Every structure is written in structure tokens, then in C-alpha cells.
Amino acid sequence: MRVRLVGQGRKLSTQAEDDVEQEKNLLAEIDTVLERSRQLAQGTVPASHLSTSRNAVNPQSHNTELSDRHDHLDAWLAVLTEAGTLKLPPVLTSAILLDAWQLLQPLDGWPELGRLLSAAYLKMEVATSHLPVLSAGLRKSPIRWRRKDPFQTRVSGLLIGFETAARETMDQLDRLSIAQGQLARHCQSCRSHSRLPEFAQMFLESPLVTIPMARQNLGVTAAAVDRKIRQLGTALQRELTGRNRYRAWGIL
Length: 252
Known about the structure:
By secondary structure, this protein is an all-alpha fold.
């Protein structure tokens, strides 16, 4: 019986030591991430410590890769120029540009840049007040872009995604309009020097609002922000985090 107890004691001691070691490793990883984040914020990120074999680059293969990248970018710009020459509708041109970017892949590992460039083109030609949310529309679209499909099928699928993005944008604008009216009604009875209207405007300008954000923008205390949240009441549709600390509110 004594031998069994001694064996169990050693087992528990070993497990406790393993737990302590895992905790130390976890804390060390957290410290590394925090230090890396601090360096990123200050713009003082040190050079990566890579092995000699990884640092060694074949100049010939590197030049070939750059040449191919330039050729693909030139081909994509040629598509843009030809679309401008044909005077195609802006939405169709944007879909063709996105299709060409996904086919050519001028920058490896950065496929989302094509969606941003297409959205920027639409903002320049059509919606000058905002950047269209093409990524959200393409994600919710029932049709997926596939390289093996014919050109007409690929572009038609992209246009359906653009339509979904426009519909999603209109739905968000409707929700914002309704929320703006509700917030305005809650601010009607406040005093002339109250900061409540400014606090309500923050929810229309930002997807989420936290107490530290409100304190910084309004120059008030945390208790005052909490009181304003209660004053807005049902105009704030939901608290986003579901926690008692580090909470955030939004209207979309």
C-alpha cells in the first residue's frame, strides 16, 4: 500500500512539473507575441533570423519570377486599357478586371488585391462616396468562380456576386437609416449641452463602440458613458461580446 502511494505521489509530482513547464512555455510565447506587436506598432521590427539556406536566393530564378510578375501585371493593365477603349459599362469592366486578375494572378499570395482594385474602379466610376463591399457579396453569392469555366460563365458569376454586394449594401443602409431615426428620438429630450447626440453619432460612424473609445472621443468618464448607454436603451440593438467586461455595442 505504501509503495502504491509513493508511486502515485511521484506521478502527481511529474504531472505538476509538466503543467508548470507548459505554463512557462505558454507565457513565453505570449511575451514573444506582445513584443512583436510592440515592435510592429513602433515600426522597429528586426530582420527575421533565417538560416543561410533560406536566405540563399538563386539570382536567375529570382529574375525570372520578377519578369513573369511584370508580364502578368502588363497583361492585366492591357485588359484595363482595352476595356476603356471599348467603352464597356463600369460594372462589366470591373467584373472583367477581377476575372483577369484571378486568371493571371500577378501577385502570388495576394488574391484579395484583385477584389480591392475592382472595388476601387467602381468607386472611381460609379459609387464615388464609398468603396463597394465586393468581397461580402462574392462570399454570399451562390455561384463560385472557377478557372475551368468559360469566360461568359465566370463573368456572369462575378456580376451576380456584385448584385449581391449591392443588395447587402442597401440592406445595411436601410438598417442604418432605421437606427438613425431611433437614436434621434432618444436624443430629442436631452439638454442642449448634452453629449448624448455625439455619442449616438459614433454608432453611425463606426461598426462598434466601446467605453474606452467613447471616453477618448467625448472626454467623459466611464460612468458617464455607461449612463449614456442606458439612456439610449432599445436604440442599441445588441451588445456584441456577451461579456460583463470589455464590452462593445453596435447597430448592424
